[in-house]
Amino acid sequence: MQARLDLFNNPVAAKILKHFTAAGAAVGAAGLPHSTRELVLLRASQINGCGFCVDMHTKEAVHAGETDQRLHLVAAWREATVFTDAERAALELTEQGTRIADAAGGVPDEVWERAAKHFTEDQLVALVATIATINAFNRFNVIVQQPAGWYQVGQKL
């Protein structure tokens, strides 16, 4: 499989993706736990069918110390006992924020309130920014049919 566009060598794409990457990097200072961020990145990518991002974020999460068991259970987090209440709230917000078009009213208040119980305002900003940027990355990759499987840990493209 070959991508419809070469996002990595196109100067316009490089400029746009540089800003997306910078937005994602700014989240680090907000205190959102790294493991929560990786779970969010993976879950949104699964929902959106972005093989490239599923590959990337699975590899990055393993490299950062995440367990195979937890990664295998992200898609079924509701039934899994391996996630904290805070992670569950973040995953629920991720699903609602990623499937925003499916809910006429947007993200339900009760979903937001569950997340707000576990995260500070700065962490909530970081969580929302993470959900928004990964959805943007997913859409870029899915639309251009970016092939998956070749990502190497640390590339951070």
Automatic annotation (TrEMBL):
Domain of life: Bacteria
Carboxymuconolactone decarboxylase-like domain mapped to chain residues: 16-95
Name of the protein: Alkyl hydroperoxide reductase AhpD
Protein's organism: Actinoplanes couchii
